[in-house]
Amino acid sequence: MKALSVNRVLAIKVPRGSDLGKYITKLAIEQGIKTGIVTVIGSLVDPVIGYYDKEQDKYLEIELKGVYELVSGLGNISLKNGSPMLHLHVALGDRGGRLYGGHFIRGAVFVAEAFIMELKGEPISRKQVSNTLWLWDL
Amino acid sequence: MKALSVNRVLAIKVPRGSDLGKYITKLAIEQGIKTGIVTVIGSLVDPVIGYYDKEQDKYLEIELKGVYELVSGLGNISLKNGSPMLHLHVALGDRGGRLYGGHFIRGAVFVAEAFIMELKGEPISRKQVSNTLWLWDL
Amino acid sequence: MKALSVNRVLAIKVPRGSDLGKYITKLAIEQGIKTGIVTVIGSLVDPVIGYYDKEQDKYLEIELKGVYELVSGLGNISLKNGSPMLHLHVALGDRGGRLYGGHFIRGAVFVAEAFIMELKGEPISRKQVSNTLWLWDL
After folding, report:
1. Distance between CA B103 and CA B123 in Å, rounded?
2. What residues are paired with C44 via a beta bridge?
3. Which helix (H) or strand (E) is B39 found in, with range?
4. Whole-model pTM?
5. Cβ contacts (< 8 Å) between C31 and chain A: which residues?
6. Is residue C49 within a helix (H) or strand (E), and if so which, with residue range?
């Protein structure tokens, strides 16, 4: 466990067409955010989500086609090899209101209203525990 | 992008039978909250959710009947025409644990435990970009 | 309604194999957290979720088997009989990306990255309103 405190809260309108993850990561790097809590709602085009298969130690990719409501995006920023890394899980709704979700891999933004709550104190770093997994080193 | 900081955190028990969105919006107006992050869990009766259809530029309404667990309510408050507006996305669980979700349109509260994290700094305003969509003006 | 403010933010890596709810509750007790906002992502093994049936005044239990992505965990800590209690709702994704969710009852952690945002001010307490339900006393 690590006790931190809240610093800035960045409100971010991710531009249409940008990859949600790449954009937030780039902004975190530019702003020097080492540790933070991320929340986002909006809608995504052709999102790809992952399910971690522990036998194979890899993410199975689930490719969704079309526009999905981004019902919840919840995650964090911490350091991987000293650089800010976004870990985000998403719930996505289709036009019938059915939800799909998992580990966010990629997806183009149609609309995205995101917050990064920057945490100050000793940053959280990740360490590699398998080929695929980098977990918090707490 | 806009850098803000956290002010008050309002903990709200929405009364049974109230519309979730109307109640939170009214309280935000009364409390003078111009920008904030909203989270809520609980359960809703006969919730109606929307899927934004970009060809028609309107929300398709999905009407759910009965009581649903409000598994996640995530969103924000910002200004529309100078007045606080709630933008909320919800995930809703039926008695079999299946999830539905989208843009919150309306729904009566059975139980709702909500937080508004008020953000201080220059408020976020929305501007109209189509008949239906009002997006953050950042 | 109660106006609070943010104190510490605890970042928690829940150990593999621990019950998510028991671990967070124990930590809240140890840290003296009376009121807080909880968010968590990761993955859970054999999670059990509940749907509150108001006619029977009890949670119907939905037992999921295997490993599920913990797509969103959202909830709070408040006091029940003077002791910190976790109220958490979860959305869980299977290997096909389908989502299930409801009131978190139990589930072993495979990975869990959690935050407790401690709130200071007058704590929130719960009071019993039926055999099963303990609601915020605001």
Report:
1. 23
2. C68, C109
3. strand B36-53
4. 0.98
5. 1
6. strand C36-53
